[in-house]
Amino acid sequence: MPPDTEAIAEQVFVALADPSRRSILATLAAGGPATATDLAERLPITRQAIAKHLALLTDAGLVTPEQGERRRVRYRLRSAPMQVAQQFLAALARDWDGPLAALKDHLEGSS
To answer: Residue 73: helix, strand or coil by DSSP?
Structure first.
């Protein structure tokens, strides 16, 4: 697996580790693009905290800022980094299939 794939996956996993960021992503997925103010109205998180979380989500590539009317920045979901993380997990799962099957066979054979 290319090193950049691992780096992208790591950024996604770090971003998803925080429940507030997961809430922000879920809200964007359900309601479409939104500003930090819009998100603060929908979530029990301050606007300042949402802005910090959005910066990390932007750095991870999970959201992209778009200029809206009156200089308001709206954030839109990006699926590409999530797809990279899913591919990383799928490859990891494939790597584990053989050893786990061998362990299962061993454990079943020794009982």
So the answer is: strand
For 2-55, how does the pLDDT look when each residue is reduced to its tens digit (9 = 90+)? 658 889 999 999 999 999 999 999 999 999 999 999 999 999 999 999 999 999
Write out the DSSP string of 4-68.
Answer: HHHHHHHHHHHHHTSHHHHHHHHHHHHH-SB-HHHHHHHSSS-HHHHHHHHHHHHHTTSEEEEE-
**How much is the pTM?**
0.78
Six token digits for residue 85: 């993380």
The number of domains in the chain is: 1
Judge whether 108 lies within some domain: no
CATH number of 25's domain: 1.10.10.10
109 found inside a domain: no
31: its two tokens: 């309601």
Q: Which range, of 43-52, 53-62, 77-86, averages the lowest pLDDT?
A: 77-86
Q: Output the CA–CA distances (angstroms, integers) from residue 33 to 27, 71, 93, in the order listed.
A: 9, 15, 33
